[in-house]
Write a structure and sequence with these properties.
globular, 3 helices, about 260 residues, Jelly Rolls, two-stranded antiparallel sheet, twelve-stranded antiparallel sheet, about 20% helix, alpha+beta
Length: about 260
């Protein structure tokens, strides 16, 4: 009796391990576009290089119906032509690491191509939507006025949005992946996030003075082409485990009958 009960426990334990593990993180902050994996698209904003547009709502990729909306109250500019965007403050009374240079992350110019700059005296938010496509990850190359600078007091944040444009997750860029480019020209770094559930339908960037370019996103695979690491349904695995346990019981009973 004890022997075949141990067999059953082993089989059910294996089934349970398949069902419940290993645990996959639902959301993850990332600092490299390569972490987005496959099915990646990039928006460079270079089509706006020869102009500066004060954005309310604008289609930035008509092929994929990617829409930029300024949902804040301050200016959000697509910058081109001879435009430049300073990323430093004049108040250096609280420098990072006691080095006044760290109160300036330099500036972006159109030598890098078109880009989006958000300039506000308070706080503002820009939102990107992706034509109803579900995403598994999104991010952008970005930079901002350091928090220590007098005109850049708010750390920029990124929000992932669900199909109803409700917040799924919020990431503080400066706290999770501070960008430090002292007095650099067109310096910056990629910041983004992924969700294993593949349920991102929009992204917002929130702050007072920041720039971004190369908006990069990964489209969630369709239901007809599940990813290779798809986990079998729990019901299926429990049925398999129960079936194996039943076979062990039948074998044990038959053996006991023959011996009797």
């Amino acid at each position: 009796m004890q022997q075949w009960m141990r067999h059953i426990g082993t089989v059910m334990g294996i089934a349970g391990a398949v069902v419940f593990g290993p645990t996959v993180a639902m959301a993850q902050f990332i600092t490299s576009a390569s972490a987005l994996g496959a099915n990646v698209n990039v928006i460079t904003f270079n089509q706006f290089l020869a102009q500066s547009i004060d954005v309310t709502t604008l289609i930035v990729d008509p092929v994929r119906n990617v829409v930029l909306t300024n949902v804040g109250t301050e200016s959000a500019l697509l910058l081109g032509g001879t435009s430049r965007f300073g990323l430093g403050g004049q108040d250096q009374s609280q420098p990072i690491l006691n080095d006044p240079q760290f109160c300036s992350n330099g500036e972006w110019t159109t030598a890098r191509g078109g880009f989006l700059g958000v300039s506000s005296t308070s706080l503002s938010t820009v939102r990107f939507t992706f034509g109803g496509q579900a995403l598994s990850g999104v991010g952008a190359t970005m930079n901002y006025v350091p928090v220590c600078a007098g005109i850049g007091r708010a750390s920029p944040q990124m929000r992932l949005l669900d199909v109803n444009m409700s917040t799924l997750a919020t990431y503080d860029i400066d706290a999770l992946g501070r960008i430090v480019t002292p007095n650099a020209l067109n310096g910056g770094a990629f910041r983004g996030a992924t969700r294993a559930t593949g349920d991102i339908y929009g992204v917002e960037f929130f702050g007072d003075l920041f720039v971004l370019d190369d908006l990069t996103y990964s489209v969630t695979p369709s239901a007809g082409t599940p990813p290779s690491n798809t986990v079998p349904e729990p019901t299926t695995m429990w049925l398999l485990g129960a079936g194996l346990a039943g076979m062990l019981i039948r074998r044990h009973v038959r053996s006991a009958t023959l011996q009797g």
